[in-house]
Amino acid sequence: MSLHLFNTLSRSVEEFVPLVPNRVGMYCCGPTVHNFAHIGNFRTFVFADLLRRYLAFRGFDVQHVMNITDVEDKIIKSVGQTGRSLADFTGEYERAFLADFDALHCLRPHQLPHATEFVVQIVALIRTLVARGIAYQAADQSVYFSIDKYRGCGCHYGQLAHLNFEEMRSGERVSSDDYAKESIADFALWKARVPEDGDVFWPSPWGEGRPGWHIECSAMSMDILGPSFDLHLGGEDLVFPHHEDEIAQSEGAALQATGQRFVKYWVHGAHLLVEGQKMAKSLGNYFTLRDLLAKGFSGREIRYLLISVHYRASFNFTLEGLLGARTALGRLDELIAKLTELTGGVTATSSHEVLLDQFTDAMDDDLNVSKSWGSIFNWVHEQNKKLAQGTMSREEAASALGAWQRVDQVFGLGAAPAAEEAPALIKALLQDRQAARQSKDFARSDVIRDELKAQGWVIEDTAKGPKLKKVSSTP
Ligand code: AMP
Ligand code: ZN
After folding, report:
1. If you measure from the C-alpha of residue 113 to the centroid of ligand 2, how many angstroms do you get, rounded to a whole number?
2. Mean pLDDT over residues 303-320, rounded?
3. pTM of the model as a whole
4. Which residues line ion ligand 2, judged by CB < 5 Å?
């Protein structure tokens, strides 16, 4: 099979055929840097990372672009409230975002364009739309996109969100970056300067002002990837208005070659929920990555949870779910540790591993991670059985390790952190316990075991004698 993805444009799973053979241009709407991102936001970025890694696994030469939205309505509001400069304010949250992004093992995109660095391209794009009669300056001095004019050119507004104009009540104009389908109306491309904007403004042919959010992504994506590119990603909440407006602006400027679209495949990730509701800053039902790290979870455990569910299925985030992810990952880590012990860390390239075939089949099917994890845990079971029976050769183990490493180039979980060395005092307690057991003083041996447990260490009796293991803290 070849890779198939669900395209929001056609609402169907389509074979993925890039515009230029073997090369993929992929744009994912990035964070609005006005606060710490929550793990719902990160679900979308981890999903983009997964797709990018899988495309690379399938041999495509991928160019992954993710913008940083460093000027829009919410940012301007926060900057006004804090009295800090725009760059100082957004710089802080961008650094925090990228630190979290790295902690979740997301590969840095090849380009991270900032909206504020693309004002020239944004103005040029608006100029083109004005010249084509699709955009106009209104009495408030802002420049708006005319939905009527765009539709008058035979273009289809609503193709992505599947809007039914006949059933809709349309408004005059909206100046805010975010609005609901019910208030479909001309939207702002360039927002005329108002006192609340403070120092945040740029000159333009229409007077001082700042760009609207939607035009930022059209200008940045087309400048870097060209007027037509393969993949555009984001969370499902971006379908309308953000992505619908991106299509309207980009195709309205008519920069594409005849017969070409702005974007060939639109792929959207479902939301991470909390008790059935979208995890959102505005609802106050969110966890940041930092909240979870402070509870003792690791970036790879959180990543595992986020990639354990299909990207088009929404799911509820719970701490119990995260504990389940820890257990599942622990099983996998245990097997990898045993295989590594058997081979002394030697791996072998294995193109015929059943693990790889099943993985590829499942992932080609619209990134079916559920199927993929199902076959991986069957494989874990089989390998453990062979290890327990002593029927696994070193060569087999090396080949199994090699196959897992290829799978993990896509899942990006990385190796388990090395076991923590016990401090001298803890080791001394273990020796006391061994001495107590040898002299058959089991009551004392139990007291010492409880003392170790209270200090966060458990004893695991192995064939090579007792081993100390740090217990990870639980929330
Ligand atoms: P923002 O920084 O608000 O522009 O959002 C960044 C990305 O996070 C966008 O692609 C959103 O669609 C996505 N997003 C926001 N909330 C959630 C959620 N609860 N689950 C998954 N993705 C989300
Ligand atoms: Zn965007």
Report:
1. 11
2. 97
3. 0.91
4. 29, 217
